[in-house]
Amino acid sequence: MVTKMQRRQFLKGMGLLGLGASSFSISHLATALGSEQALTEDYLLIACAKQQQQHYLAAANAQGEVVYRLPLPARGHDVALAKPEQQLGICVARRPGDFAQLFNPLSGEALAQLNPPDKMHFYGHACFSEDAQRVYLTAGSVQSSQGSILVYQCRQQQWQLAEQWPLAGLGPHQLLLLPGERLVVAVGGIHTRGREKLNLDSMQPALKYLHSETGQHLLTRKLNNSKLSIRHLAYSPQSDSVWMACQGQDPQQQPESLIYSQQGQGECVALDPHADYWPM
What we know:
By secondary structure, the chain is mainly beta. It contains two helices and 21 strands. The two termini are about 15 Å apart. The model is unreliable at about 1-10 and about 20-40 (pLDDT under 50).
């Protein structure tokens, strides 16, 4: 399913939100139009609405009508949803971010705001456990960009930081919960100060798998090109493989591909950018 919304209705909804096509990053637009994770039964969720210097989490229905706008402290990057019946979503601030807003995706009600520990920031992404009692967020040290997974847990209707799992890598970005109690994390490998990149000559991107209950390291796989920062992930249940979208960090280099896949214990494989399609 691509979307329940026709293109004209979608553009109408963007107009009502005060948005133009340039307001969407490619990743957000792809998520909004193509991912069932970003769709509820009636709404298309958009994390990057901005109007009169105010950032919002916004939802439009299939008729292109704005259903709700939830004010955000700053620019949002990613929206992750739990199962529809759990009525729980989270919008994470753009890196380096200091908030993650939990909300009800049906009503737009703000539920709780999560903040990182002192001297840490979020990296824009989160995912829920199967029972939606825990939420995992990528985070890092403000000083070193050393990555961590922060695990927040809901106890007696209060969300609190329960665990912090260190990652052997800098600048983690998106993460996904996979079947078999696996958590897969895209490690960009870049040390940043604010939005400035400081270590492009020595960056070490990687794909990492952790046990989702304990944080135990399960597997690390690297790319054949250290100048590609792994940013976003997709999962294919048919083949139990993970797909990676990368960003080139060397303007002098012409990479063979920006899309990789990884399956089982195998290495990361560059996908042919000239192919008409890639088998799932």
